Amino acid sequence: MATGIKIYNDAGTVQIDESYANLVLVDKQTITISTPVTTAYDYTCSGDVVAVAVKVYPETFITKSAQFTGTGWVYRFLFFNNPDTTGTCTFTVYAFAKPPAATETVGLKVLNASGSLVFHSQFKPLRIIAVNSNAGGYTGPGGRDLAAMFLTMSLYSVVLFPSTVYESDTLRITGNVIQHSRIQIGTPAIAGINTTGLYAAVDVTNY
């Protein structure tokens, strides 16, 4: 006889499972930087598994790289100006990782067979509501706040005579709307590259 716990939503999707560890919100930071044409920012969060989403407007952004340091992850974001830019860029980073030790003693707690915490109602879980091509935008349910999590980066080599340049798909987010813009990110480039990546729309309402 099978043992354990599974909790489903009304669509039949498993939301809580004793063998699956939810990633939960472990850090939220709102940061303001100056914005030359392209601005890089390195965000660091400890943990062996860290997924990061960003909310920014009116500038656009990409996640250029993610590197494990041995104790945590360094995410490098690039932010890009546009006609709406005011000279500074304010963005919010949401970092999701394995559940830390809970401090509350009420609510629902689920442990796996080895006694490790996989769910606790104290924490806010990573809620991905859609996965889309980087080459397009997305409109979520009304009244929700979204952030974007790049899963893979787009990279295109484009001939702008006499040079070949790199372009990529960038995103900006306002309310429940994720907007797309394709921007030049570097030169010179290797000809023949045409890769379109993916991003996740993350619901961060009241996070």
Automatic annotation (TrEMBL):
What is the protein's given name? Uncharacterized protein
What species was this sequence derived from?
Bosea spartocytisi
